[in-house]
Specification:
- It comes from Campylobacter novaezeelandiae.
- Keywords: Coiled coil, Cytoplasm, Ribosome biogenesis.
- It is found in: Cytoplasm.
- The chain is α+β, with helices and mostly antiparallel strands.
- The protein has 2 domains: 3-69, 2-Layer Sandwich (GMP Synthetase, Chain A, domain 3), CATH 3.30.300.70; 80-136, SH3 type barrels (Roll).
- Helix content is 21%, strand content 41%.
- The protein has a 5-stranded antiparallel beta sheet with strand order 7-6-5-4-8.
- The termini are far apart.
């Protein structure tokens, strides 16, 4: 089943999915994005598309609950694709060498992510594999 194509059908961009356990319940979450932001109607529309398909071909074994959600303004970047979908956003990064930096994502080419350091406006390029943790953030 192609989640990306099904999201597009609902006018949304697939961001990520995860299976979590909360209060002894399995929750299968599908995160989506859209220019201008995701609203409740978008989530309901995609849920209506996915539910009957998942009844036939469940995404996980056993009983679960389906949730469709926006990844939020501040979200983890765990895949190269997440960086591509977050160009021009601010990000906090911890490298494998424990170096921490705050930067703006300028571009993503192959596995190289070009950033503008917020402290000194210098452009730096990091390889995706050198990043231990990354998450977007909002500067208020």
């Amino acid at each position: 089943m192609n989640l990306e194509a099904l999201c597009k059908e609902a006018g949304l961009d697939f961001y990520d999915d995860e299976l979590v356990s909360e209060n002894a319940k399995k929750i299968y979450r599908v995160y989506v994005m859209k220019k201008g932001g995701v609203n409740l109607d978008d989530c309901a529309r995609l849920s209506e598309i996915l539910s009957p398909l998942f009844d036939v071909e469940p995404p996980v074994n056993g009983e679960y609950f389906l949730e469709v959600s926006s990844p939020g303004l501040e979200r983890k970047l765990t895949k190269l694709d997440h960086f591509k979908k977050s160009i021009n956003e601010l990000v906090k990064i911890t490298t494998n060498e424990k170096e921490k930096l705050k930067a703006k994502i300028i571009s993503v080419e192959d596995e190289n992510i070009t950033l503008e350091n917020l402290e000194n406006q210098e452009k730096i390029t990091l390889n995706f594999n050198d990043i231990k943790k990354a998450r977007t953030f909002i500067q208020w």
